[in-house]
Specification:
The structure is a single chain. Strands 1, 2, 3, 4, 5 and 6 form a six-stranded antiparallel sheet that branches. This protein is α+β, with helices and mostly antiparallel strands. A hairpin with a 4-residue loop joins strand 1 and strand 2. The chain has two helices and six strands, in the order H-E-E-E-E-E-E-H.
């Protein structure tokens, strides 16, 4: 009788048995396709709603800024067009001074005037016997001790108001009279 030998899988003697674990003997399927390339994970996509809302906000901001600029320009233009070119204007200041001349530039920061005159009070010689009233005279800017040029930049914050003068008004007539006597200066 044959000796009873321990037999391994499929009746093989132990010398012919594999020492590898059983799981290593699983059949492998070979996929003929190449392995897929590794794609890194991508950040989550923003929804279209968020992008559209952002664009709408940017457009509204741009419209607001542009609108404010247009309104400021329109305000400056309407004020500048209110000045009658060629005519004289009176500018009344917060310090009770009044200047007469031609406004050549006006904006929210300053008013530029040229061909400037102002009123000066002339005190008469006073006698105890006669009471004369003081008189106003129109004085051309530039004859003062400090010798200013005939241009003035007035801070817009110091202006109470300004107005166009009539061509046949007393101040305009006095300016024309002064210029005729002084060779148009």
């Amino acid at each position: 009788m044959e000796q009873n030998r321990p037999q391994g899988p499929a009746g093989l003697p132990p010398s012919m048995r594999s020492t590898a674990p059983r799981s290593a003997h699983k059949p492998q399927h070979h996929d003929p396709r190449p392995p897929a390339p590794h794609v890194p994970p991508q950040p989550p996509k923003k929804s279209k709603g968020v992008l559209i809302a952002g664009l709408v906000a940017l457009v509204l901001i741009a419209i607001t800024i542009t609108g404010a600029g247009i309104m400021q320009l329109a305000s400056n233009l309407s004020t500048a067009t209110a000045v009658k070119s060629g005519g004289y204007q009176a500018v009344f200041l917060t310090n009770n001074m009044v200047y007469f001349g031609k406004i050549s530039d006006i904006n929210d920061k300053y008013i530029k005037m040229t061909d400037i005159f102002y009123l000066q009070v002339q005190q008469p010689n006073t006698d105890a016997k006669t009471q004369q009233q003081s008189q106003l005279s129109l004085t051309k800017l530039g004859n003062e001790l400090h010798g200013p040029e005939d241009a003035m930049y007035i801070n817009a914050k110091e202006v109470l108001f300004w107005e166009n003068l009539k061509a046949d008004g007393k101040v305009t007539a006095a300016i024309k009279d002064y210029k005729s006597k002084n060779d148009g200066k």
